[in-house]
Specification:
Metallo-beta-lactamase, Chain A; 17 strands; 6 helices; seven-stranded mixed sheet; 20% helix; alpha/beta
Length: 276
């Protein structure tokens, strides 16, 4: 399996754009798949530079209903006339960032994408797309909670309760005896998501591509070191799993995890190519 980071907060080449967001391309024997589309058209511009043909993709997955993953959705659908987009049935909800003393800011899926609703396939707790692709959102545990989630809300009437992230889904790709887990921001906790993936697979995945949401993008503040180290110990316990992370993980958290995991954790920087 081949994976390319089309867009991330950073890039490894000067001719590639970078912005707070995430977009991954996965190529298997059966699929050319897009996982998330970043906040705007930057992923599409990078895809062209990298020689990745968006029109040739047969499948797309949206990890959750936040703009930094869904902002480029309309641009993808405009360039690709056939691929279905798999998103959770709650992904089109009213999601906001709420800071004390400030007006709530809408951070959900842009309206422009909704004109392509006939291309959407809505998933629930689990959806088996085919023998190699499986979506799941039914994460059962809630350990190692990220404090950066506190400002993320769902509008209900005139209220803004905490987002429960029911709209967040993850993708398992299995092929040739290998299993890869793709996640967006891991708002529900990468450890909890891994546990559910292990239940579905019967073992730990060989590789994980995901943001770990261990810093606050608004303030730039990382999660407490003790929380990051606890997550690192859990990740290290999966001795055969390699982790590729970036986006909402944060530089400080990544450095701490690197101390714990060594070569088993690598940056998911824009333009990077990985083979599993």
């Amino acid at each position: 399996m081949k994976f390319i980071t089309l867009l991330e907060n950073t890039s490894c080449r000067a001719d590639l754009g970078h912005v707070h967001g995430l977009s991954l391309y996965a190529e298997t024997m059966d699929h050319k798949l897009l996982f998330d589309m970043g906040p705007n058209t930057a992923f599409a511009n990078n895809a062209k530079v990298l020689g990745v043909d968006l029109a040739a993709m047969d499948t797309a997955v949206l990890s959750h209903g936040h703009y930094d993953h869904a902002g480029g959705l309309a641009a993808f659908l405009a360039q690709n006339p056939t691929a279905k987009v798999y998103l959770h049935k709650a992904a089109l909800g009213s999601y906001y960032a709420v800071d004390p003393g400030q007006k709530p800011e809408f951070i959900g899926v842009p309206e422009a994408a909704k004109q392509y609703a006939d291309r959407f396939v809505f998933a629930g707790d689990e959806l088996v797309i085919d023998k190699t692709l499986r979506l799941f959102s039914d994460v059962k545990t809630a350990d190692y909670r990220s404090h950066a989630n506190d400002k993320l809300r769902e509008k209900q009437g005139e209220d803004y309760p905490m987002d429960r992230f029911l709209h967040e889904q993850n993708l398992l790709i299995t092929e040739g005896g290998k299993a890869v887990l793709l996640g967006g921001c891991a708002h529900r906790g990468i450890v909890n998501i891994l546990r559910r993936a292990e239940e579905l697979l019967g073992r730990a995945p060989d590789a994980v591509f995901a943001g770990f949401h261990l810093y606050n993008p608004g303030t730039g503040e990382p999660e407490p070191r003790e929380l990051i180290e606890a997550v690192g110990r859990e990740l290290a316990a999966r001795k055969d799993t390699v982790y590729y992370t970036g986006h909402c993980t944060g530089h400080e958290a990544y450095a701490i995890l690197k101390e714990q995991l060594g070569d088993r954790i690598q940056p998911m920087t824009g333009g990077a190519v990985y083979e599993i």
